[in-house]
């Protein structure tokens, strides 16, 4: 996933994320990285990057591999690029219908400034702004949803700090849900149009309680790269595209009207994805 962020956000927020990023990479590769001192690895990586030349993750890992010959390039590269050294992926990235190699450069080289250090203990302006931004996108939501989505520690204090700005509700299980006071909250009976989502979309992954949008038997699909179709606001099918044809695979029995709406939206998607303007779509049968 490629994220486009403003320089202001990168400089102010990156320091708040460093502990979480370290923990995730070290947790993923804990066996491979036994004996690797993260601070020593970071220093080695910065020395390689000091010449100002952007590098791929593999190139950077191979440049420091002599110091850790028993560790593969992937763990070393991910720890350096994703966690230890604040990096940017240089343009061109996110190209349409083509691929380009990833070239990484330190944020300090690209922006001419080091990222800001984490806020002093007892203050968390980034955490407080994260609460606001999360709720703007995903509210109403529980604080557990926020923690599951971002993986950051220390957020209860941030939620408490901005609680006076928020409104609260109770869901069917009695959990407290928080939201911004002026956020849209449509009537539950408001029809929701069919929508095709990409893989790993935050509409599904943005909550600890994903049952609000996807049925429990299908929750595992949300982390396998399946691309979902929302029908009336809930995951009701998956979709794939091949040779310009969008194929919809229902996860439940769809009504005739729902099939027609899915086909209509699928034709628009096929046209968008196809270089030749194909509008071919196929809606499969419901599972037995």
Features:
alpha+beta; Arc Repressor Mutant, subunit A; two-stranded antiparallel ribbon; 9 strands
Question: What can you see in these coordinates?
Answer:
The chain has 288 residues and is α+β, with helices and mostly antiparallel strands. The chain has three domains: 7-111, no CATH class; 125-179, Orthogonal Bundle (Arc Repressor Mutant, subunit A); 195-283, no CATH class. The chain is built from ten helices and nine strands. The chain has helices at residues 7-28, 38-49, 57-64, 73-84, 107-111, 125-138, 143-150, 155-162, 202-205, 256-273, and strands at residues 87-89, 104-106, 167-170, 176-179, 195-196, 228-231, 234-242, 245-250, 280-283. Strands 5-6-7-8-9 form a five-stranded mixed sheet, with helices on one face. The protein has a two-stranded antiparallel ribbon with strand order 1-2. A hairpin with a 2-residue loop joins strand 7 and strand 8. Helix 1 (7-28) packs antiparallel against helix 4, helix 2 crosses helix 4 (73-84) and helix 6 crosses helix 8 (155-162). The longest helix is centred in the N-terminal third of the chain and has 22 residues, at 7-28. It starts with 6 loop residues before the first helix and ends in a 5-residue tail after the last strand. The model has no long low-confidence stretch (mean pLDDT 92).
